[in-house]
Amino acid sequence: MPAPLSPIDKAKYVAARRASEFVESGMKIGLGTGSTAAWLVRCLGERVAGGLRIRAVPTSSRTASLAREVGIEVISLDEAKWLDLTIDGADEVDGNLNLIKGGGGAHLQEKIVATASDRMVVIADAGKQVETLGAFPLPIEVVPFGWQTTQLLVEEALIGLDVLGRTTALRMSGDAPFVTDEGNHILDLQLGRIGNARQLSLVLNQIPGVVENGLFIDICDALVVGHGDGRVLVRDLAEGGVSETRYALEGEDNIFTEIAE
Ligand SMILES: O=C(CO)[C@H](O)[C@H](O)COP(=O)(O)O
């Protein structure tokens, strides 16, 4: 029998399960990276086994492996060119559906894939919702060549901007610098609070050596928030309003079934 899911995993699972219902046969979709996105990939794998026909562009090597494992056809973005829908997790999401992403180090591919989609849907547990972005350290992907100079340039560029802090740390994986799928490093920027996310994103991306930052401004179209009790709230910017779905735990095996909409 599988181990019981923690409340946070239940929240991630139900958000992913609800968002998987947006996927229709014939679609080309983008698959995000992270633990919430992994639930989505598993949910879609179940639907593929039941006959759903989709082609998917993963946003990381991790997601690509999982997608293949569960039977989803994987294609490159160059092959797909444009996608119907991308579903991905987030580290923070504010009231305008602007995001901080990159906790998993995949925000470069995630941003390219989300931007090449008709719609981006974010799936998250309720703890990811914030009033103002910035408590989560902002990931900045930088090329390895001269990364310490890039780090100084980043810290200098923040002087005068509406942020609380400006210290950066090189992300590590054990004793070595973390390396992204594109062969780059990540600087995690401790800001505390971001006053003007659009301005900050533009400033950061102009610095030589910076490849991409984890701010997603005006990219997300809808937010699916899961709760540990099985409730899921969907907020769609195009439709306006919030709709609620509830999933109930069935028996001891932690399989959720939908009970109300
Ligand atoms: O941006 C990401 C990876 O680069 C993830 O979507 C983000 O870190 C959320 O991860 P999780 O679903 O595990 O909480």
From TrEMBL:
Supply one GO BP term: pentose-phosphate shunt, non-oxidative branch
UniProt KW Isomerase keyword: yes
One Pfam short name: Rib_5-P_isom_A
Record's SUPFAM superfamilies? Answer: D-ribose-5-phosphate isomerase (RpiA), lid domain (SSF75445), NagB/RpiA/CoA transferase-like (SSF100950)
Return the GO cellular component terms, semicolon-separated.
Answer: cytosol
Named in its record, the pathway it takes part in is: Carbohydrate degradation; pentose phosphate pathway; D-ribose 5-phosphate from D-ribulose 5-phosphate (non-oxidative stage): step 1/1
InterPro entries noted in UniProt: NagB/RpiA_transferase-like (IPR037171), Ribose5P_isomerase_typA_subgr (IPR020672), Ribose5P_isomerase_type_A (IPR004788)
Its Enzyme Commission number(s) read: 5.3.1.6
Q: Which domain of life is it from?
A: Bacteria
The top EC class is isomerase
- Residue positions annotated to bind substrate are 33-36, 88-91, 101-104, 128
| Entry keyword set | Isomerase
Which residues constitute the catalytic centre?
Answer: 110 (proton acceptor)
In its UniProt record, a GO molecular function of this protein is: ribose-5-phosphate isomerase activity
What chemistry does it catalyse, as a reaction equation? aldehydo-D-ribose 5-phosphate = D-ribulose 5-phosphate
Q: What is this protein for, i.e. what is its function?
A: Catalyzes the reversible conversion of ribose-5-phosphate to ribulose 5-phosphate.
Q: How does it assemble?
A: Homodimer.
Q: Which family does it belong to?
A: Belongs to the ribose 5-phosphate isomerase family.
Q: What is this protein's name?
A: Ribose-5-phosphate isomerase A
